[in-house]
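README: folding subset

This subset contains proteins for which both the sequence and a predicted structure token string are available. Records are stored as plain text. Below is the entry for Short-chain dehydrogenase TIC 32, chloroplastic (198 residues), shown exactly as it appears on disk.
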Amino acid sequence: MLEMVKYLAGSVGASGFGSKSTAEEVTEHCHHLRSITAIITGATSGIGAETARVLAKHGARLVLPTRSLKAAEETKASILTENPESKIIIMSLDLSSLDSVRRFVAEFESLNLPLNLLINNAGKFSYDHAISEDGVEMTFATNYLGHFLLTKLLLSKMATTAKDSGIQGRIVNVSSGIHSWFSGDMIGYLALITTNKR
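--- output ---
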């Protein structure tokens, strides 16, 4: 409870920043960002869009994987209005589909770009019960399995980039505390999210 109060009050943590710190404040002295390539999932709204805007402002090349090409084009246009020199690549990705994740990684690797930063930000929550094409509950497929596979498949690219550039790679997983609200039947929930397609 005390941690939640500190968070809500914006108390500064060990990093020197708190919940009230802006993305621009956090990146103010990150001059190395102009030489990196970043993949940001969920960059068409909210935290992802703000992250993309601020990284572009600092000169990072952005790769924005998205289910909605229209929404990504709008995000790109907004960023380019503020930072016309920004380098932004939009690519198709549906994190609820493991085949889509594999296709995205293959297409990204075919661009022969470095990869310094992977921000796993996309998230989905639905009250309706839906199953992915892989037979997994949709929220779990999107928020966990898709990002897990994406990260696993991009690790070697990040390691190669770090070795070649001398810039250590970073993987950032953005999440929510909403999972802590769950107080139901864990066994039943696990059975639900792992339903196999028949």
